[in-house]
Amino acid sequence: MSEVDVAQIHFTALFRWIDRGVSEWLAATGHSFTDLLREGPGIPIVDAHAQFHQRILLDDELTLHSWVSSIGNSSFRTRHWFVRDGVLAAEGELVHVCLDRETRQTLTAPEWLRELATDDAWRPTL
Fold first, then answer.
1. Number of Cβ atoms within 10 Å of the Cβ of 54
2. Model's pTM, two decimal places?
C-alpha cells in the first residue's frame, strides 16, 4: 500500500521503476552498475520527467521498456515506457551525465554506450 495514494499508484513509484529499468538495461547489455562502479564512468541523473497517460492501479501488471534514446558528448537520455495490455500507460525520461567519480569532471560518453544508443525516432513495439 505504500506505493499508492487515494486514486492510483503514487507518482514516485514510476521513478523507482525507471531506476530499475536502467539497471536491468545496463545488465542486459553486459555493463552492469557493479561494472560501472568498478570501471566508471559515474552516470548521475541531472534531469527526470514522468507522465501518466492512464491511471495505474495497485494490481495492474505493466511491462517496462527501457532504452538509451539519444547521446551527446558527455550526456545521454534514457526513455522508459510503461505498457499495460498493449497501451502506453505512462512514460519517463532521464538525462544522465558521464563523470569521473573522483574529480566529478565530465567525460566523453563511452563508445559501448554510443553503439547501443538508438535513434530518437525508435519506439518499442506495443
1. 13
2. 0.86
